[in-house]
Amino acid sequence: MQNVLNLTAASRERFERALEGCADTLAALPVRDRDLFELRLERWFQHLDDGLGAVYGRRPDYDAFVDRLVRTLAEQYASRPEALKRLDVERDLTPDWFQRERMVGYVFYVERFAGDLLGVLDHLDYLEELGVTYVHLMYVLRPREGENDGGYAIADYRDVDPRVGTIDDLVAVCDALRERGIASCVDLVLNHCADSHAWARAARDGDPHYRDYFYAFPDRGEPDAFERTLPEVFPDFAPGNFTWVPEMGRWVWTTFHGYQWDLNWSNPEVLLEVVDIMGELANRGVDVFRMDAVAFMWKRLGTDCQNQPEVHDLLQALRACSKIATPAVAHKAEAIVSPGDLMHYFGTGRRYGKVANIAYHNSLMVQTWSALASRDARLMTHTLRAYPPAPPSIAWGCYVRCHDDIGWAVTDEDAAAVGWSGGAHRAFLSDFYSGQYSGSFARGAVFQYNPATGDRRISGSCASLAGLEAGLDAGDEVAVGLAIERILWAHALACGFGGIPLLYMGDELGMLNDHHYLNDPDHRADNRWLHRPPMDWTAADRRHLPGTVEARVFHGLLAILRARGRTPHLHAQTPAEVLDTGHAKAFVQLRRHPLGPLAAIYNVSEVPQELDAGWLIDLGLRQPFDQLEQRFVDLGDGRLALRPYDRLWLV
Ligand code: GLC
């Protein structure tokens, strides 16, 4: 393959030497297995070396480090179970497996959905009924005792939280899911570990090797210098970005809570540890790593220490590691960042298409709620139109709600482009969704008010934010109906955008805010638990009772998901563009597929609208067929009539 792959001379030299270095490990394997490893190593080595080299290349021990890393990868591959090696080949052959229109994600806390890991096995039929092909299992790896940020303070990445089971249970669940064609996704918290992780304990005990896994400063000099440009993620319950650790006599970098210690990725030992963990979990059967809080992985004085180029290099290197040793695995980046920063997580420029396979489309989610509150699609159209085309090898994670709050990531520039003030619009959205705005349909709560910036993020379940809670409380059938339409509207948008729709547990039934978290001392301070309720299986049973809210939401959503599965245009590879029709109430996305165009049209208001259909006719959609409702749509007089909260997928 040498002449095809074109490794640079320096990389080829490193590749040859690294391969030599794992000859012993590979010698024990059947010839075909050995060949596959070599071919994959060669195929992805340039990505690996470029990513690593950009970060660590100037270190005198760089070559030795690469050798160690490749030996680790060879060992992972050698111990990979046969069934997973087969899956590797399957996914090498079908690299678009996560981009297909049949992909449907479902996201849940294991404990809240099923009690524990093995309990998930009792609900596989439910997942299958929804057509789920991908589940994000939350709160699986062992977190610290006591407060743990909803499971995002990991005390042991190689073990499972005893409250939900054992590592063998995780294997059993991954196996059972795979048998049903469902991929499993587990969180890999990359920016920080818990203060009780063995690395942190060793650092606290004064071990210099492990102290270097963290950022620890003897006095306030450097922390103060960094703080000048650092924002605060949890200004309310964890102000500042550094925590004094008396046993160490040091200020430790803690972007999130004081018990979440940021890992020092400038130390290559940290990368080696993480690669080793990834391989172990991948060999247990995990298909997708949700790489948590990646934006924060690199620190640079004078910046906000987010989205630094080294983050993208590190993620490129990590992805190459999976491609080499455990190629069935995909990486999903959790970077909840501004529109301008997001595309880098798929790779731009020299990293194009090499960084993450999947990334959350935070902007789509924010614009969904912004459009619903303002009954205006112009900001959404402007913001989403400005995105450069994504690489054809990726998929957006498209979601309406998740376990986190909603931060109003609307830039002043984007707001100004439609004649709005960014600050005023963000304040309006916070007022609207916390229910303070008169006439608001939403019931949410302010999360982390930051007096310095005026930011007020929002917690609340999809249904409560969409008006269902207020409608039900008022016994107002019209309001209930509109709320259900909003829930379905938002989900149609997420399902029709051309990535993996990620349904958040309970939203398929219209589950409301849950205030029980106030009784739990570990959750009380964090109102994100408002929208992390236990699954209401009694409500789920009501999906079979026609006319109930649950049945209306569930079957409405099911119809959207079914339509998605029979619309090949929604394969994530299909080029897509947001169209500006000049109509303030209509959001329009066009996908150009060899089968013909798909025009997805959404009326963002509860008032009927009319759209000039000239452009549809120009596209050849003279007698369009709506994939969602399976009916032909009339464009008789060159106008398209839109019903309240209408959504149409016209082909
Ligand atoms: C991610 C998680 C969030 C957590 C944070 C810190 O954003 O989704 O729940 O608080 O990372 O780990």
Sum this structure up briefly.
With about 650 residues, this protein is of the alpha/beta class. It has 26 helices and 25 strands. Among the domains are: about 200-260, Oligo-1,6-glucosidase, Domain 2 (Oligo-1,6-glucosidase, domain 2, Alpha-Beta Complex); about 575-650, Immunoglobulin-like.
Account of the 3D structure:
The longest helix is centred in the first third of the chain and has 26 residues, at 31-56. The radius of gyration is 25 Å and the shape is globular. The relative contact order is 0.09. Among the domains are: 198-262, Oligo-1,6-glucosidase, domain 2 (Alpha-Beta Complex); 573-650, Golgi alpha-mannosidase II (Immunoglobulin-like, Sandwich), CATH 2.60.40. β18 (576-579) and β19 form a beta hairpin. α2 crosses α5. It is an alpha/beta fold and 651 residues long.
**In the CATH scheme, what's the topology name of the domain at 573-650?**
Immunoglobulin-like
Hetero ligands: alpha-D-glucopyranose
Shape: globular
Secondary-structure-based class equals alpha/beta
Distance from N terminus to C terminus (CA atoms, Å) equals: 42 Å
- The whole-number mean of residue pLDDT values reads 97
Helix content: 25-40%
Strand content: 15-25%
**Major sheet summary line:** 8 strands, parallel, barrel
As laid out across the biggest beta sheet, the strand order is 1-2-5-11-12-13-14-17
Low-confidence stretches: none
Report the CATH architecture of the domain at 573-650.
Answer: Sandwich
Put simply, the count of helices is 26
- The CATH class of the domain at 573-650 is identified as Mainly Beta
What is the number of E strands?
Answer: 25
Radius of gyration of CA atoms, rounded to a whole number: 25 Å
